[in-house]
Specification:
By secondary structure, the chain is an all-alpha fold. It is built from seven helices and no strands. The chain has one domain.
């Protein structure tokens, strides 16, 4: 049974916490084991968005002007674990007819509802820049952890 920590009152780790643990792991085997242990559709989708070159963001590249949610982790905010289902709107082939301004405002609303760390992660992932924060997570590690992921052909 999962135990609650002071860092996060929810027994299930935030995706950003999982990625921090994986990035801090010393060996490739440890990283693969941690990814498999914390496997979820949301985690795999974020890794695919980040590492698959065929996923094309429909949002402007770079930082996003939003107000980070300063509520303590695990309290008054949503989680990528539950919000990932709507991410298709922000990528080519998802909801292409959505007006750019509407898409961008929806993205800002999503970011402002997430914890600051998960919002930062999502901003990095949309541009394929997750490695700027989680330096030791590579496509090779992800491919070994999740061999069923098919890369390419998503847009």
């Amino acid at each position: 049974m999962a135990t609650r920590s002071l860092e996060n009152s929810n027994p299930r780790l935030l995706i950003s916490e999982v990625l921090r643990k994986v990035s801090n792991a010393k060996t490739k085997e440890e990283k693969v084991a941690l990814l498999r242990k914390h496997n979820s559709t949301a985690l795999r989708q974020l890794l695919i968005i980040n590492f698959d070159d065929s996923v094309i963001s429909m949002l402007p590249e770079g930082d996003v002007p939003y107000t980070p949610n300063d509520a303590p982790v695990g309290t008054d905010h949503s989680r990528l674990e539950s919000e990932y289902r709507g991410l298709y709107r922000f990528f080519k082939g998802g909801q292409d007819k959505l007006p750019s301004l509407k898409r961008e405002s929806m993205f800002v609303q999503l970011l402002e509802g997430l914890s600051a760390e998960e919002a930062e992660l999502l901003v990095l992932v949309k541009d394929g820049r997750m490695n700027e924060k989680y330096k030791r997570i590579t496509k090779a590690v992800v491919t070994e952890a999740f061999p069923t992921i098919e890369w390419g052909g998503r847009s």
